[in-house]
User: Fold this.
Amino acid sequence: MSKTFCVLPWMHLATNASGALRVCCNSTPGKNLIKKPDGTAYKLWSDDIQQAWDSDTYKTIRKQLLNDQRPDMCARCFREEDAGLKSARMGVNQKWIEDREYELEPDMDIRYVDLRLGNLCNLRCRMCNPYSSNQWVDEWQALTGQDLGTDEFNRLKTMDWPENPKTWENLFAISDTVEEIYLTGGEPTVIREQHRLLQHFIDKGTAKNIRLKYNINMTNIPKHLLEMWTEFKRVQVNCSIDAYGDLNRYIRYPSRWKAVQKTWDQIRAIPNVSYEIHCTVQMYNILNLNELIDWTAQYDTRVYFNILNHPEELNIRVLPLALKDEAARRLEPYIELEKVQGIIDYMYAEDWSHRLEDFYTYTDVLDKSRNEKLIDHVPELTR
Assistant:
């Protein structure tokens, strides 16, 4: 089998928050959309997904993955593998790959669906953007100096594409083969349209055969959603927590640690729910990961570290050497934990410290907007 093979283009459907079809959530934004002959993206809410499945975009990436080539859109996975980390590609291959021949033009047999049902969210995480959180729209214009224009501004404020009947026609058409659904956002716990999808499987009597996977920000889970989860085979909740205590609020603004702890206790009490911490490793928390690890130790739960790639000014490679050394020193006692050595190796692999001033500019704009100060949370990073 090809050394660069990834199983996803043979069994996976993914959307971004705008409803456009893309290869997967780890592929490079701007390069990963499934394109029509006219260059525009296929959309879940307006197009036939069979046509997308048979498109030249899919044919090209399948051919590359079958022939030891690294598609440009897959740079993130290969960059992590080159740094000694286990990439998403390696993980999905381990989980989904079968002992069979993978053809260039396969029948559509979608088993794993990754849905971003819009950008509705209740937080403004520092590493996010208005395409994934509608709360970010006003700050985005201040941060980038970009005038979105009235139409785009309004679209990002209120994404209503999940209400389109074609969305549900497409989703229900593939519902017989689906084994796992990954729901994120936006923030999936506040996106009502997901309930329609879950209810469809409950009413069909097939929910007991389907696994659900969520990324949630831990601020709240509606009671009726918790009740629906009990109907499914298994629910995996990836709990997005980037730091212990008030630093988590600074990063995932304006969450409150008391609410995070309450939601954590709720999740742990549901019999068919598995859970783990998903931490986005970035400039704001690399020097304090030890505190988060110590908090999770009391629960004997897995921490999955996801290294942030965008925006680049928040990437841990931007750290000056002295602070990289300090971060490595603080992580040394946890070196046996999954990915910790890989984080250190990745951090040292390249010197991006020329982007440090960009980091301060980015941070200053958000601090001013939110009446926050970096020095109050990560004093080591201040000028």
